[in-house]
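**User:** Hello, beginner here. Are you able to go through the protein record under this note? It all follows right here:
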Amino acid sequence: MTSPADAIIDLYQRHAATYDGLRGKTLMEGPWLARFRDLLAPGATILDIGCGTGQPIARHFIEQGHAVTGVDSAPAMIALCRTRFPEGDWQVADMRRLALGRRFDGLIAWDSFFHLTPEDQRGMFKVFASHAAPGAALLFTSGPAHGEAIGSFEGEALYHGSLDPGEYRTLLAESGFAVIDHIAEDPSCGGHTIWLAAAA
């Protein structure tokens, strides 16, 4: 039987249209995206890891003049991105094995990275580092403490994993990132646990 962690890609593939309708266009994460953008030069390149359907986050960056490369493991999500933003660079890829051979000025993994198991999350810091240009900004969401949690989406199990905050700090430092800010369960952003960092 497939575990909830292994079922994430198929779950989003089958329910891409439903997810798109539920996600909507509201940017409750707007203040954090602004802080992320403050670390970037005008027109900086951004890698959106787990970009979903391209809105509202990728759309926001595109409208602000940034060149966005979006990757998602669900082909149905990428198909929606390509329809909405045909000028963009949209690729079907599993973030755990991402190897684009390019470096970006900003990397974001909002509500995507936390669907990985704790062990897979540990491996992602090498992926972040290998795609980060000098001084690159990194913004991602996690859980507030080490563990696993199972939510629900369309009546099916929705997996979330997290490391301990101390381990995130260690992994960021070992990968060449300095933490700029971290808030656990930010009440002003729907209870998201958020990390903002910058590469050396």
